Amino acid sequence: MSELKTVTKPATSVAPPATSVVARLRWPLIATAAVVLLACAAPFQLVPFHTFQLAMAMVYAVTLLGLNLLVGHTGQISLGHGAFFAVGAYTAAIAMERWDTPYFATIPLAAAVTFALGFALGIPALRLRGLYLALVTLAIAIFLVPLLKRFDGLTGGSMGLTVTKPVPPAWTGLAEDQWLYFLALVTTVLSFVLVAGMLRSRVGRALHAVRDNEIAAEVLGVNLAHYKTLAFAWSALLAGVAGCVYTWVIAFVSPDSFAVTLSVTLLAGLVVGGLGTTWGPVLGGLFVMFVPSFAQDVNQAAPGVIFGLLIIAVMYLAPTGLAGLVTQWSQWLGHRVRKGKNHAH
């Protein structure tokens, strides 16, 4: 009787086909390139006011990018990012108006000031978390406005400061609104590239570990104090850079422009856009820019009511934010396309 021999093949790890990896990377890159190309063409097709609105949406997107780094990727709540935004705006305005600083030099200045401020705030925030941390950051946003009004010799007090808008170089052939738009666009693209590189590095993995489970992250050797303060500092830096570009675009700063409602609106915009997502800050920036003005047009007596109802509606229809909704739609569409191809074959 012949013996039956069972031949066991050695287990081998099957690597995903290179084509599938390329396919996964191709569509996000194509979508990103398409968005950038549309953004480059927009100021040549729109009237100046709409160009200004899109520039402001990009300014808010950079602010939300910093807030997303702190809240979405590190898990720390902040209700005071309007304060960092204001510090960056006032740093640029004071440097341009009082010290005749070239406007390009105000970006590193605003970045350095807000980075130091965020790092300083991150140290005491190490002992706080959750609602306690949110209250501390909210307190900063509350007392900043009267503080700006008090030092009127430097900040212009309640009247604020008016600065000269950056003039486009003659060789560009651009109008003033188009030049400011492209300054905002370049700042936005560079900020997103910087944060994307950070999140793909060891720093990004550490921030995600802190967000998911602080105790487990510490056991694995993550220095909680270092990465929490780093997240605060980089988040504040991005808000400060956005505030600097805001000063270029608006050419005016006043304390009332940075009331505590700005910080609340920024956090709401980030949640609506999508926490911890790539496109969340962009969609949130568009939401922060256009929805309040839409609410004002619908009901001038109570725009806050319309704004609040719109937030509730978006959260009901898209619990993971607009970016999550777009992802679900794209996955559904891709599934339908693949299903159609299979039926065709």
From TrEMBL:
Pfam family, one: BPD_transp_2
Transmembrane portions of the chain: 27-46, 52-71, 78-96, 102-123, 130-148, 179-199, 230-254, 266-292, 304-326
Keywords from the named record: Cell membrane, Membrane, Transmembrane, Transmembrane helix
Main location: membrane
Membrane-protein topology: Multi-pass membrane protein
UniProt-annotated location(s): Cell membrane
Protein name per its UniProtKB record: Branched-chain amino acid ABC transporter permease
Species, as recorded: Nocardia rhizosphaerihabitans
